[in-house]
Design brief:
The protein is an alpha/beta fold.
């Protein structure tokens, strides 16, 4: 499987009004000190807030009439929807096949940056989902590289410092952007003896923070110096609080890594994963899709559902991942999907019942 070194088609790069605006939390007024993208960062500030719940969210009861007849394209989160950790959720291959037989397009968008698109293709194949083509898979590592490409980072002749795993590095290789850090710094320790000082590469122009199971103090200090002393951009692949490394429990997510860098720099990151509009802008431009006929399906309120509601899509929450029904229906929750259900297998529950 070969992957194009050009992440964005010329049509996307020229789609002025549809150009990617990454997410910076509302109320943040940090000046961008590199790439000359202060106006972009300002435009990117978006208040991802929803109205308080006025009524209980509807549980999907008529999949055909409420959902399938209204949707041409499904965008699925992966972890908690398609699989948990490295375990495929039972029934998923059959459900995806039924969707395709019904003429639905399917895309898979994950905030997990540990793998590149090529790496995720291998995971899909390993789980028996080998009918999913690479072109339908989008990761936040791809989104980070896409953001750098659209903002012409390569023309600055700067480097990226990576806190993260091989997925980010592979995507940067595809667009020809030099980087340091990542897995190469897994075992490094700073000199913290008397007079100890960490020397950093003066050409670092951006720091990308993705999920990193080998994050350490060396990486945190390097990022801190690059952002605070060199004015490097602070880019986060996502802010997920927890993730599914295994199917036995939840594990601390990339929000913990990003939080460490926020704490020592006082800066807010540019977020390129969900709920940022980058990937839906890309899909809309590349495939000419109608947003009103697209449904985002995920297990997280603050990323998946928000990605749908803030970008003009339908949204469906599944309870097969991190969000419980109690949390969804709680008066404290202000993020409202159109519907919710237990798993995507419920799309065809009647036909499966009849078949059995």
């Amino acid at each position: 499987m070969k992957f194009s070194r050009t992440l964005f088609s010329s049509s996307l790069l020229m789609a002025g009004a549809r150009a990617f605006s990454p997410t910076r939390p509302a109320g943040i007024g940090r000046n961008s000190r590199s790439l000359g993208i202060n106006s972009l960062a300002t435009t990117a500030s978006r208040a991802f807030s929803s109205s308080p719940l006025n009524a209980n969210v509807l549980k999907l009861s008529d999949p055909q009439g409420e959902l399938l007849d209204q949707v041409d394209v499904f965008i699925f989160d992966c972890d908690g929807v398609i699989w948990r950790g490295d375990s495929l959720i039972p029934g998923i291959p059959e459900t995806l096949e039924q969707l395709r037989q019904a003429g639905k397009k399917c895309f898979f968008v994950t905030n997990n940056s540990t793998k590149s698109r090529a790496g995720y293709k291998k995971k899909f194949d390993g789980l028996g989902l080998n009918t999913v083509p690479a072109e339908e898979i989008f990761s936040s590592s791809f989104a980070a590289a896409a953001y750098l490409e659209q903002t012409n980072f390569k023309e600055t002749n700067k480097k990226v410092y990576v806190i993260g795993e091989v997925g980010i590095c592979e995507e940067l290789d595809l667009i020809g952007v030099p980087y340091i850090g990542g897995p190469a710094d897994n075992d490094k320790q700073p000199d913290m003896g008397p007079g100890g000082k960490m020397e950093i590469d003066e050409d670092v122009g951006a720091v990308i923070v993705g999920f990193d199971r080998m994050v350490n103090y060396y990486k945190i200090q390097y990022a801190q110096l690059a952002i605070n002393e060199l004015g490097a951009q602070f880019i986060a692949t996502n802010l997920d609080a927890v993730t599914h490394l295994t199917d036995a429990q939840e594990w601390a997510g990339n929000g913990s890594m990003v939080g460490a860098i926020k704490g020592c720099t006082g800066q807010e990151p540019i977020v390129v994963g969900k709920p940022s509009p980058l990937m839906i802008d890309y899909l809309e431009t590349k495939y000419g899709m109608d947003r009103s006929r697209i449904c985002m399906v995920g297990d997280r309120l603050d990323t998946d559902v928000l990605f749908g509601t803030e970008n003009g899509l339908k949204s469906l929450l599944v309870l097969s991942g991190v969000t419980t029904e109690e949390k969804l229906l709680s008066p404290e929750n202000s993020i409202t999907p159109d519907y919710y259900t237990d798993t995507i297998n419920d799309f065809f529950v009647e036909s499966k019942t009849a078949a059995s």
